[in-house]
Amino acid sequence: MSQRYLVTGGAGFVGSHLVLALLRGGASVTVLDDLSTGHEAAVPKGARLVHGSVADPDALGRAFAEGPFEAVFHFASLTLVGESMREPVRYIAANVAGGAALVEACIRHRVARLVLSSTANLFSEPAKIPIDEDEAIIPGSPYGESKAMLERLLFWADRIHGLRSACLRYFNAAGADPDGEAGEDHRPETHLIPLVLDAAAGRRPPLIVFGDDYPTPDGTCIRDYIHVADLATAHLAVLEPLRTRSVRYNLGTGTGHSVREVIAAAEAVTGRSVPHTIGPRREGDPAVLIAASDRIRRELGWRPRFPALETIIAHAWAWRQRNPHGYR
Length: 328
Ligand SMILES: NC(=O)c1ccc[n+]([C@@H]2O[C@H](COP(=O)([O-])OP(=O)(O)OC[C@H]3O[C@@H](n4cnc5c(N)ncnc54)[C@H](O)[C@@H]3O)[C@@H](O)[C@H]2O)c1
Ligand SMILES: O=c1ccn([C@@H]2O[C@H](COP(=O)(O)OP(=O)(O)O[C@H]3O[C@H](CO)[C@H](O)[C@H](O)[C@H]3O)[C@@H](O)[C@H]2O)c(=O)[nH]1
Description:
328 residues
């Protein structure tokens, strides 16, 4: 019998790519998603969708009735840093309550392993770049704070109940399924690469570059863009160590790219110009965020298959070209 997994938020960008990877590996997948930002059409064929919130006991009951699960992957979350700066209470309440309800259900249903989508926003004042797992956790927003709280909740769930967990701190998730079966469709879209590609395609007004007076070589912010398919393989790679211990890893490629470099790479990939203007800084944006992913490389042998920015952008562009209206 095939192994069965629960993926919360599996109708969203990163979650749907993990669902694809699990299905391609022969697993059975249940997705629990309230479709608040995800899309029913993004749930890959072959997975079962339970429509509802992780905070709703009835929806959790319907999802867990499909178990027992080998492991649970928790992507479902409010995810926007900027929005969380305006609505801190809603962000912390929703993310912590949803995560806590899910963890409680995992304990009750004797799930042994849970993987949490955590974030680079834990590290708003890095003492050194690249950022490793020993860096002090100083969340940059209520969104980051909610992930820090869930990481602590998981620490205690392991210590007291033996629920093993992996906290995966993604840096900038980007790209699309290399075979074109899934892609990025956030509404509203706030992420740089899809905005750049839509500007190139003429589907949006010119991109606004948020500040060109940062202490970086070209003045624009530097980020570590990691292919969403490589995030998926990292989720699969942690399942083995989770049999015996909890882990936490920072996930990026270890290479940073400025906003200007992203624009130049997109122009090279698409053969079009990316109309853009320079605007003010966006509140809360650190100048440079780059992950040291040495620990997961060393301990688990994980490597990004698609580390090059051009490949990440090419896959995102290919999906967007075939799906100009996203998932509709
Ligand atoms: N995209 C990134 O660059 C990035 C970076 C760091 C961390 N993350 C984390 O990765 C995860 C996935 O991010 P994403 O970009 O795929 O976001 P997304 O919005 O595309 O996906 C989130 C999914 O969760 C669902 N959801 C939200 N609240 C829910 C609830 N209470 N119950 C059930 N479903 C709910 C949404 O409908 C959506 O399908 C999030 O936890 C996010 O915080 C993302
Ligand atoms: O219209 C835009 C959009 C973005 N940017 C710049 O592009 C870079 C990337 O911005 P994104 O919004 O794509 O990503 P962030 O680095 O802000 O956020 C990412 O990392 C965060 C943690 O730091 C969270 O985890 C979040 O979910 C994740 O998308 C930033 O320097 C931003 O200032 C622009 O110049 N113009």
